């Protein structure tokens, strides 16, 4: 009986200490499907393994990490770990301070638009 009580206390303590992710539909693992550049070029990325991961206030794009802020219809990204070639491949032109308009966001899909490109994702 004593072991059961200790196990329950440990479980409650662990869950009580976890931060709550309040990103709503934005939180999770997103697969980049298509990049539609502002110059008219379209890049189909369905077959590539290009992912964005969003959790708490952190974002992982490829092998790069950064912070983000989702406010209304805008998503602001500031990358901490900058690899320009990798980020450009993922639709990021200005890794130090990128702003996206959130054109569509649901549990299953997302469309973001910057001055550089429109990015289409599906939840993975």
Give a summary of the structure in a few sentences.
Helices cover 18% and strands 45% of the residues. It has helices at 2-17, 84-89; strands spanning 28-37, 42-44, 51-55, 58-61, 64-71, 74-79, 98-105, 109-113, 117-123. The protein has an 8-stranded antiparallel beta barrel with strand order 1-3-4-5-6-7-8-9.
Helices and strands, with pairings:
Blueprint: H1 2-17, E1 28-37, E2 42-44, E3 51-55, E4 58-61, E5 64-71, E6 74-79, H2 84-89, E7 98-105, E8 109-113, E9 117-123
Antiparallel strand pairs: 1-2, 1-3, 1-9, 3-4, 4-5, 5-6, 6-7, 7-8, 8-9
What does this 3D model show about the protein?
With 124 residues, the protein is α+β, with helices and mostly antiparallel strands. It has a single domain, classed as Lipocalin, CATH 2.40.128.280. Helix content is 18%, strand content 45%. It is built from two helices and nine strands; from the N terminus they run αββββββαβββ. An eight-stranded antiparallel beta barrel has the order 1-3-4-5-6-7-8-9. The chain is globular. The termini are far apart.
Radius of gyration: 18 Å
pLDDT average, as an integer?
88
Look at the structure and give the CATH class: Mainly Beta
Helix content: 10-25%
User: Which fold name corresponds to the CATH topology?
Assistant: Lipocalin
Q: Structural class of the helices, strands and pairings?
A: alpha+beta
Instruction: Provide the low-confidence segments as ranges.
Output: none
Q: What are the secondary-structure elements, in order, as H or E?
A: HEEEEEEHEEE
Largest sheet: 8 strands, antiparallel, barrel
Tally of helical segments: 2
Q: In what range is the share of β-strand residues?
A: over 45%
**Strands, count:** 9
Assigned CATH architecture: Beta Barrel
The best one-word shape is: globular
Oligomerization state of this entry?
single chain
Total domain units: 1
Our measurement of the CA-to-CA distance between the termini, rounded to an integer number of angstroms, reads: 42 Å
Task: Order the strands across the largest sheet as they lie in space.
Answer: 1-3-4-5-6-7-8-9
């Amino acid at each position: 009986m004593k072991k059961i009580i200790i196990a329950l206390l440990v479980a409650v303590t662990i869950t009580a200490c976890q931060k709550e992710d309040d990103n709503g539909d934005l939180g999770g693992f997103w697969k980049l499907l298509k990049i539609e550049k502002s110059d008219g070029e379209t890049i189909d990325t369905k077959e590539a393994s290009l992912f964005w991961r969003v959790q708490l206030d952190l974002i992982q794009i490829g092998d790069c990490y950064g912070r983000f802020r989702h406010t209304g219809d805008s998503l602001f990204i500031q990358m901490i770990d900058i690899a320009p070639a990798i980020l450009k491949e993922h639709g990021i032109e200005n890794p130090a301070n990128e702003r996206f308009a959130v054109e569509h966001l649901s549990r299953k899909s997302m469309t973001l638009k910057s001055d550089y490109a429109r990015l289409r994702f599906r939840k993975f």
